[in-house]
């Protein structure tokens, strides 16, 4: 039995991704709307590398709660985190002076019982520089994508790829905002990696779309949408396998970084990659190709082809309906003919005598048998040439008459009888 991948590739099984583009558009639109709203309410939580400030870390030697840390530091602490592996208190503040930094370190050491409190300070100018460089890298990436896809395929495919990339970027950022994950430089690196992966998966599908649609002519029996949908089905298993192979190491990196090593940089990177790969796989199947197909169907050449295929389908449907109607009309006539053949023929009535079938005449000169001559009252000649005895006998009854057998007798048999 062929596998599901083989059946999808050869068209034995087909999922209508392109035909249901309105459903996917509504689903993606709702998710993107929620993500866009979450970017403002509650908004992204940028790390210290973007907004500047100070970070204090202390390993707690006694039980401590977040409320106790906030009470000890007052209004200086903006963000307080408690980590389990190892037990550590992380406090983020705004940019502080040297005296304020020393005061916070002393208070944090008393409340946690730590002998040493580390401190890192980042200026606001450095955070702004990081933000500008991240945006510049994103713009350069998008320009390169447009140029490459336009030269490799066509401009409309490049725009469809950009739509898929924007879809992935907005949804990933929305998940970060709703889950209150901190945006760090590692997150930016992960987002750029996600965009690269999304572009790779989209280009794989578009390459198959171009191969299938390049064979279309004005006399083709399928439309551009049918050819594009077949391309998505043919690359579906490949996309899923690639995504699964990518998710396994990312999930292991997230587990090791977050729970085993306690490395925040690894966990931020792995978390962004995990969300991005899932969203990118969805967009390459449900967003990029349906968007491209709807746009391409507006071209005059593809509109004419779609109209021609629709007329052929309507004509074929009318022919099938006429054939079914003719078959339904012919069925009663066939029934009547079959009944007439099964009905027995009426036998002609005879006056006490049986109907005898006609016997073809003997080609040989007919000679009257002696018994038949006597029965008919005709004199018969003997072998010596003398006449038979005079007189007539009574005719034999109808029951005693000999029925002809329908077979001719041979001449020797007749001579022996004479």
Describe the structure.
The structure is a single chain. The chain has 13 helices and 6 strands. It is α+β, with helices and mostly antiparallel strands and 418 residues long. The strands form 2 sheets. The chain has a 4-stranded antiparallel beta sheet with strand order 3-4-2-5. A two-stranded parallel sheet has the order 1-6. It has 2 domains: 4-47 and 124-312, Multidrug efflux transporter AcrB transmembrane fold; 53-122, 2-Layer Sandwich (Alpha-Beta Plaits), CATH 3.30.70.260. Helices cover 64% and strands 7% of the residues. Helix 6 packs parallel to helix 8 and helix 9 packs antiparallel against helix 10 (264-296). The radius of gyration is 50 Å and the shape is elongated. The longest helix is centred in the C-terminal third of the chain and has 43 residues, at 300-342.
Which labels suit this protein?
418 residues, alpha+beta, Multidrug efflux transporter AcrB transmembrane fold, Alpha-Beta Plaits, 2 domains, 4-stranded antiparallel sheet, two-stranded parallel sheet, 6 strands, elongated
Total number of beta strands: 6
Q: Helix count, per DSSP?
A: 13
Helicity, as a percent range: 55-70%
Largest sheet: 4 strands, antiparallel
**Count of spatially separate domains:** 2
Q: Give the spatial strand order of the biggest sheet.
A: 3-4-2-5
Kindly report the CATH topology of the largest domain.
Answer: Multidrug efflux transporter AcrB transmembrane fold
CATH architecture of the largest domain: Up-down Bundle
CA-CA gap between termini: 83 Å
Q: What kind of assembly state do the chains in view correspond to?
A: single chain
Strand content: 5-15%
Which structural class is indicated by helix and strand composition? alpha+beta
